Amino acid sequence: MYNGASNLSGGVDWAFTFIFIIAFIFIVGITAFMIYTVIHFSRKKGKPARQFESSTKLEILWTAVPTILVMLMFYYGWVAFAPMRQAPSDALRVTAIARKWEWEFDYGNGMKSKELVIPVSKAVRLDLKSEDINHSLFIPAFRVKEDVIPGYNNFLWFIPNFKGSYEILCTEYCGLLHSAMLSKAVVVDQSEFDKWFADLKNKVFVKEPEGFTLLRNKGCLACHTIDGTKLVGPSFKGLFGSERTLIVDNKEVKKKADEAYITKSIYDPDSEVVSGFNKGLMKSYKDVISEAELKIIINYLQSLNEKK
After folding, report:
1. Which band of pLDDT confidence, cut at 50, 70 and 90, is reported for residue 275?
2. How many domains is the chain built from?
C-alpha cells in the first residue's frame, strides 16, 4: 500500500499514474501506427492504389475504447478529489494568510507564525485568506493546492504522515516576488507541537510596538524591512530624517524623509519614487491605512532612528 507524505498523496499519485500510463500507451501506439502506415502504404512502382471503405466495427471501437478510458480517468480523479473537500470536524484549524509576497499562519487569539507548524498524524484544516490579490497555496509533498482569492472562502486539509520540513509555494503569479513567496510546513511530534504552541502563546503577551504591528498586518514588511535589507522597496531603517534621492517627473531631486514625505509615499507612492527602485509596484494605501494609523507608523519609524 502506497504511503505518501499525507493521507491524500496516494489517491492523487494513482490518478496521475493511471493517466500517464494511458497517455504513454497511446502515444507509443499511435506513433508506431503512423510509422507503419507511412512505410506500408507509401507509393511504389507497380503497386496499384487501393480504395478503403468505412468500417462500422472500427468506428464503434475507437469511440467506445476512448470513452471507457476517459470515464476511468474521471473516476480515479474523483476518488482522489472528493476526500479533499471533506475535512474532519476535529481538525486543527489554522488560517493561512497570503499577501504580497509572504505567507503567515494564524492559530487564533493573535498567535501567528511565518511557518506552518503542525503535529504528525493529526488532521489539519487551512482556511485560506488573501489580503490583496489572487494567490494559490501549494504543498507539493502533501499533494494539496487551492486558490487563495480575496473575498472567497476556501480551504484545504490533510493529515501529515511523517515528521519533517516541507515546502510551501505560491502557484498563482502574483507579481515581482512571486517566486520568493515561500514558507515551510514543519511536522513534529504532538509533544513538540504542544511546547511550540505554548511558546507561541506566551509571545502574544510580549507587547510589540504598535507601529510594527501595523506595518506587518498591512503587508508593508513583505516589500520593506527594518534591518537595512533591500527588497522590492527601500528599507525603513534610518529612513526618518534622512535625505532621499527621488525620481520626480523623470528628474532626480533631493528631499528629506519627514512626516509629509512618508505620508505622500504611502498615499501616493508613484509621485515620488526613490532612485534605484521601480515605479508602479506599490498601490496607494489611502483606503487601507487611516490617518490615525499613519501617525502611529510615522512615530514608529521615527523611533527606529532613536534606537541607533
Report:
1. confident
2. 3
Calpha distance 128→137 (Å, rounded): 8
What CATH number is given to the structural domain containing 109? 2.60.40.420
Q: How many whole angstroms separate alpha carbon 41 and alpha carbon 306?
A: 87
Other Cβ atoms closer than 10 A to 96: 24
Angle at 285 between CA 284 and CA 289, to 5 degrees: 165
**Distance, CA of 183 to CA of 140 (rounded, Å):** 12
Distance CA 286, CA 289 (A): 6
Residues 242 and 227 occupy one common structural domain: yes
Report the candidate in 78, 77, 69, 81 with the shortest Cα–Cα distance to residue 24: 69
Angle, helices 291-306 vs 259-267, to 10°: value is: 130
| C-alpha cell, 104 | 503567515
295 found inside a domain: yes
CB proximity list for 92: less than 8 A, separation 6 or greater: 118, 119, 122, 123, 124, 125
Please report whether residue 4 resides in a domain.
no
Judged against a pLDDT cut of 90, whether residue 34 lies above it is answered with: yes
Cell 484545504, located at residue? 156
Instruction: Say whether the peptide bond before residue 101 is cis (omega within 30 degrees of 0).
Output: yes
Q: Which residues have C-beta within 8 Å of that of residue 190, sequence separation ≥ 6?
A: 119, 120, 122
pLDDT tens digit sequence for 250-271: 888 898 989 999 999 999 998 8
**Residue 285: closest CA among 218, 213, 216:** 218
Residue 144 confidence (pLDDT) above 90: yes
Residues 6+ apart with CB under 8 A from 294: 262, 263, 266
Q: Is the pTM of this model over 0.90?
A: no
- State the Cα–Cα distance between residues 198 and 192, nearest whole angstrom: 10
The domain containing residue 282 runs over which residues?
210-306
Torsion angle (degrees, nearest 10) of CA 223, 228, 230, 231: -20
Residue 1 counted as domain residue:
no
DSSP state of 85: G
